[in-house]
Amino acid sequence: MRQPDIEIYLKDADHTAIAAWLSEALGPCTAWQQKGQTFKCSAAGVPVTWLPKAVGKWHSLHLNSDTTPWDDDLACAQAAFAALNVEVRCAPGSWQEEESVEQADRWMRISADGVEEITWRTG
Question: At the top level of its lineage, which domain of life is listed (predicted)?
Fold first, then answer.
């Protein structure tokens, strides 16, 4: 089932590289608009938010649309890793607010080692 939005976390990437990748994957990106620590743009009509160092050294990329080429966070994370060659993390599926803390710490890690489930305590 397609997720309503996509959120992935990237290590060692910047919003310039992200814009170049999204331009290829989705379509042309508008210029980034910075508001505080957050950067926003639109890639072929998809609202994009980039938050540097959202969790430690990890940067958050949020695509607020269900019309991306990816059905879920994992598919997007794998595409980001393939294009940018940086480690990417994402939730294993749609996370619900009522889920337990243990469930919230379950993440997928996409790296040169492949795809694996890890425990990542972000809170």
Answer: Bacteria
